[in-house]
């Protein structure tokens, strides 16, 4: 069990108090984490899927300021256990900033977010999609997030508002560029298919549900929808449609190369795969993928000598500093 003690609750509640509270994480037996794994591993704190600090002394883990993003709303805390053979990430704890919270931005469990990239060229096809979305029952969808090219925002604003008018859940539209950091501007010659794929990962930073469903303009609902079709209720795991990796083998091999994953068999054809959009994605899984990409291609300096008022105390038994785990390479 990993016990996290927060000594200043002001960041998490409306009132200031010095009373600590405890968050506990358990170990997933399916990962077969051993004492040897613990003794020979490096431990790192992760915030929203990104490594923010690694520890040399694991008897007392301190949460460094780099792990607390400015103006955060939801924070996915997890621990990375890493050695030469394995990389394991604990199942995250989602913390919610209670300061100035409004219900729309609250984190919700048991419902789904929909994500749709949309352009003017796709508009005519999307009308059938929206007619089918009207049939979705209330209470299972939190919101629909639509992302359009920056130069088409004003052009599509009224049309999107009209299309969303009959839906039983909120619908919001944004410029694609809000998902990119440091004021990045998407150039006219940018590969549009690549932008759509990036949107479906980057949107995880805005999602306030455990899972989200990616859509395209040519996707339609074919039968009455029930959340149990895509989310296994007792385990809270997404259900996917099996597809052999041989169907798009170059995609899988390209992803393995890009993410520098070396623990797959030489032939990916025998590995279990899944199909394309519509796809149910784990919000935390997407954050892990983004964190991996940043680690490989946009590394940041995570060293720091100063700590915040947040502290993490770990049980003295070295085996107990681990938590419920999922393999980061196979999320």
Element order, helices and strands?
EEHEEEEEEEHEHEHEEEHEHEE
Mean pLDDT: 75
Distance between the termini: 22 Å
Poorly predicted residue ranges: 1-20, 302-331
What proportion of the residues is helical, as a percent range? Answer: 10-25%
Give the strand tally: 17
Which value, in Å, is the CA radius of gyration? 21 Å
Number of helices: 6
Describe this structure in words.
20% of the residues lie in helices and 26% in strands. The protein has six helices and 17 strands. The strands form five sheets. Strands 3, 4, 6, 7, 8 and 17 form a six-stranded antiparallel β-sheet that branches. The two termini are 22 Å apart.
Task: Give a brief outline of the structure.
With 331 residues, the chain is an alpha+beta fold. Helix content is 20%, strand content 26%.
